Each structure stands twice: as structure tokens, then as C-alpha cells.
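In the previous chapter we treated chains in isolation. Here, by contrast, the input contains four separate entities that must be folded as one system, with a combined length of 676 residues.
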Amino acid sequence: MNIYDVSHKAGVSIATVSRVLNGNPNVSPKTRQKVLDVMQELGYTPNVFARGLGLNTMKTIGILCLDSSDPFLANAVYYLEQNLRKYGYDIILCCTGYDLKNKQKYLDLLLSKRVDAVILVGSSFLEPQRKDNTYLFQAAASVPVIIINGYINHPNIYCALCDDAQAVFDATTKLIENGRTNILYLYHSKSYSGQQKLSGYKEAILSAGLKLDENLMLLCKNDMHQTKEAITEAAANGVKFDAVIAAEDLLAVGAIKYAKQAGLKIPKDLAVIGYNNSLLSSCCEPELTTIDNHIETISITAVNTLMRVFSGNDVPNRTTISNDLVERGTTDFAKNEI
Amino acid sequence: MNIYDVSHKAGVSIATVSRVLNGNPNVSPKTRQKVLDVMQELGYTPNVFARGLGLNTMKTIGILCLDSSDPFLANAVYYLEQNLRKYGYDIILCCTGYDLKNKQKYLDLLLSKRVDAVILVGSSFLEPQRKDNTYLFQAAASVPVIIINGYINHPNIYCALCDDAQAVFDATTKLIENGRTNILYLYHSKSYSGQQKLSGYKEAILSAGLKLDENLMLLCKNDMHQTKEAITEAAANGVKFDAVIAAEDLLAVGAIKYAKQAGLKIPKDLAVIGYNNSLLSSCCEPELTTIDNHIETISITAVNTLMRVFSGNDVPNRTTISNDLVERGTTDFAKNEI
DNA sequence: AATCATTTTGTAAGTGCTTTCAAATTTTAC
DNA sequence: GTAAAATTTGAAAGCACTTACAAAATGATT
């Protein structure tokens, strides 16, 4: 079953069938309808490979993601898929893990599959050393590259992100205004957005005239129980704190578990703020105050950006999305609502 | 840059290059190495479309999933991706939502992309009426179809699943032996596995000589807060219960929230058991006792099954994976450990 | 009705690979 | 050293589509 069968049955040439297939306007309405009817009747589907050979595109976007089982990343992948599909694009999903070699390998693989663009979910695809990002630059030489939650300056790399530094700055400042003076910061990644968040924390501390304390910046594993243990150990070593702000909801849950174990009341003895507003944040007890970085909006923006790039428009390399603090049970900010 | 460039530079024919590309053994070691060297030097990557045209396969598996942002389904997708990649397969991910029309549409789309197989993540792809599954049978006519957590009898449809009925039966029975007599069952889906779980619950109640009470089987929305409300309403209507067993961890979290609101102590006043052993289960307070259906093992089994089908082996149509009860803080079973 | 412009259609040459079959080369056996 | 067998190689015909270009059909203009 191929284009010849359709052309025979419709009594036209394969060129005409192909034109109908591709929405070419140079086909008279009569013939177009006739061809469409035959296609319908025969249940004809064009062969994507032959099509790809001619067009050199398959309307497919490659998505690179550290680990699609992480609730936050899974959300991003979901929103990307839904929105790309609206424009008729499929996604090929690759979960790379943290290893740089693997990231490179999968990126090459996507390019060899002739994807039309690559979307990187998570700033951990940006290596700290700029020279280690050459693999991205190479990819960007052949297709547009979109980074979710990261920023790097390059003509064919487009970034959609939340101002993480500002978000953490605001939240930290709010804790300080709330009377908290020893704020423990939990993070597990030194990725671009990880650094942004950390710098937001530091800025807030310094702006408030407080002193930065290295002991209050705790590098954790991405696991709630291990995070609990890490905090327990820090506390045992004499680190004092009356609030926690975490770079991920998961870490914040670890802090809640620590408080429970240490017999601390939340939020009275310990205030906790998470990040991402994931499912976890409304699952724990008390429910978690968290920064919502609007991942759905970021994903939609990324897709829209890509579509504009495809249509040859000039597109800014960076789009920043707003964020907000979702207040739940782990903080007791005065209600200053108007 | 194509196969001709390589063949010229290596001084061989394109047929030889193609053989090297496909690991055909009928190439002398010398020429093979020469060709490989040239490929390396030129940075040659074969064009997947041309390749697909000839081979009519692209080493790509289509994955159909209701909603990849659901923690449980996201996990399954992740494990599938990781294991398929070991065999050199890519995945195209489609999130369909509940609408049957959409499921059909995406399945057609995957077939038109000439995927080598389709994996359906979740038994919600099995419609209650057998005739509504013709779309699956049609797909199965052209490629192998794998269903995760569902079962239907068809020669080209392979199923990897946990014995959900048995799992719920065992857990319910354990609650009864623990002295609980009014067990509330929460579910949100009437999919194949949903029905299995429900039947396991019913069997357990009846086997124990208790009476089935329709009021104790609560159909909820897939949302923890709405579940809490649903339970609250049931309680207000006079439904009494001293234990909850839920078809999903998310619903169980709703039950924990209800207990908190109603001032009930867990597990003393109310025991709770969830399903899936997802991240949520160790996130809530107390941590959730839950049925682990070993989704990683199921996913690996599904992939292995598929590979065996590809290699033309005879493969059983159904593989059942064991499950176990992970006891955490929401139950107080006597510790009968040996 | 004849000419020209415009729209519509068809022919044929790619697109980059796989694979069959025959030819060339190498190995083995005597 | 030669014939037969086995291995290695290449020429050429697909695979199912796109698209440039030429040809045909239609419509407009006088």
C-alpha cells in the first residue's frame, strides 16, 4: 500500500497525491477531494521513512531528561509532550542520568535520528565549565536547542526558566522578616539553577545584614531519608537553625521528618519552605509551603519559542517566567492580605 | 555526507559500507577496519530515514500512557525507557488521557510512525467492553502489543502484571486478622487492574465471613483532597470504618488527611494501606503501609518479553510478577518475624 | 477564434540506504 | 599447481516518497 496505489485508484499521478499529502495549494479542489476520498477509502498512511528521506524531518522533538521518574521532571516532560503534540510533533524521550558521557551519547543519538529540535529538561545539562558544554554547541549547530530552567548564551540555544535566584531571595527574605535568623539551606545539585537558588539565598542573608554561615548550607542527596540524616548530623554537630529552605520539595520533606524526629513543632520551632510545588508538598504533614516555579507555563513557553524558531521568526534567547510562594502549613507568615 | 562519501574514501563499494554498518559477518576484518576508520574520520552517521526505508524499522517502541506525570506511571515509563535502551531501542512517548478516541488516535499515530512495538502503560487501555478493544486488536495485527498491568487474551498481545486481586486479598485479610472489621475500600478507576483489586477486596471480606457493604466501597477522584472530602462525606452519612485500603497511594494519603481532620489516631483508630509503594508513601506522616507491585520488575519483564518476541521465540502471553506488603506506620500488625 | 497568461498536472530525477545475485578473490584439498 | 569450495566484493534494483521542470489544461483578453 503506497502512493502508487492511491494515484492509480484516483486516476492521477503520484506527484498530485504527494501534493495533497503536503497541503500544496497547487491542486484543484476537485482533484484534492478525489485523492482524499481514495486515501480514506484505502486507509492509506504515508510511509514516514520515505517521507523523512525527502523532507529530512520527521516532526519529532528529542527530549533529554535526567530521570523522568522525578516528580518535577516528569511534570515538565508531560507538559512538553502535551503541547508539542498540539503542533503535530512527537517526542523521543531519553533519560540520561548524571553522567556527562551519557548525556553526550544520547544527544548524538537524538541527532542521528534527525530530530527537529532538542529540549533539555533541567539545568543539569549545563556543565559548570563552559568548555564542557561544547556538546551542546555542536548540537545547536544542527538543530535548535531549548533548555528548561537553565541559561547559557548561544545563538541557537533558547532558554525558558524561572528566576530561581529571585524566588529564593524573596522566600528567604520573608523568613527573615518573619523573625527567623538561622536559616538552613538544603540543596543537592550544583547545576545552573542550583547555583542560582543558592546565590539567591546568600544575597538575602547578606542584604538583611546577617552573616553567611557555611554550616547552614547543607549539600544533601536527592532522598528524603538521607536528607533527614544529614540534618540530624548537622544538628548533632551544633548547627542551630529555626528555618529551612530547600532547593527541592523532596529535601524539604526530609526536613519535616527531621523535625518530627527531633520533637520540633512546625512551624513554631522550625519553618520549612520547599521548591517546585510538586505533589509531595501537599502530601506531607503539615503541608509544605513551597515556591511554585510554574513549570507548566515554562513548558508552554518553551514549545511556543520552538515553534517561532521553526517559522523563522526572531526569538529572544531567554524567557523568564514568574514564580510565587504557595503558603501552606510549614510557615506562619502574618497574613498581610489586603 | 552519505554512504557514497564513505565508500569513495575507503575505496570500497557502498554495499560493503552497508554491510559494515549492519554488522554483516561477510566482510573481511581488514576492509571492515578500513571502513570503520573512514567513518570515524568523517564523523559519518547513517541517515535513519534511508535506513528505515530499507529495513522498515527504526528500532523505536511507542509508549502509550494515560498521564506521565502520575508518579506511578512516570516510574513505569522510566524503567521501560532505561531497559529498552539497553537493547538499542528508543521510545516515543504519547500521553493520551482517558478519552478512548484519543487513545485510538495516538495508537494510529504510533503505527504510522512504524514503531516496532507498542507498550501500553496501565490497564486503563483495556476497555470494559471487549468490542471496544478492537483498536488494540488492529494494532496487534501489525506489531506486538505489550500491556503493563492488564490482561487480555490475544495472540499478539503480551501482558506483564502483578496479581492485583491476590495482593489486595492478602492485605485485606491481614487487616481482618488484625481485628479490623469495617474496612473502607477506596478506588478511582474501573480499569482492568481496578476491577481486579476490587474483587480481591470483596473476596477477602467474604472469605472472612463478613458482609459486603456497598457503602464501604468508595469511588473517588484521583486527588488526595477530593478523596479526603469524599471520606468526610461518607463518615457524615454514618459510614463506620476502622481501616482503609486504597487502590492508589494518592487515595490513601487522602485517608490520612481525613484521619488528621477527624482527630483519629493512625493506626490505632484507623489503619491505612496504600498501593504502589510510590514516593508519596514515604512522604506522608505517618509513613504509609503499602502494597509494592514491583513496577520495575514488571517493566523489565515487559521489555524482555518483547525482545523474545522480536527474536521469534514462543513467549507466554501473560507473565505475573509477585508483590509484597511494605509495612510502615499506618498499620500495627503484630510483628511475627521469625 | 486566436493568443497569451495562469493554473493544474505529470514525468523523471533525486533522497540514502539495504539486499540480491553474480563476479572476483581467497582458501582448501588433492 | 590446479580445481573446487568458500569467502569476499560490487553492480544494480528496490524502498516510498518529494520536487523541479516541462507539458497540458484552463481561463482571460482581444
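The mean pLDDT of chain B is 93. Residues 2-4, 14-15, 17-19, 21-22, 28, 46-47, 49-55 of chain B lie near DNA strand C (CB under 10 Å from a C1'). Compare these points with the single-chain example from earlier in the chapter.
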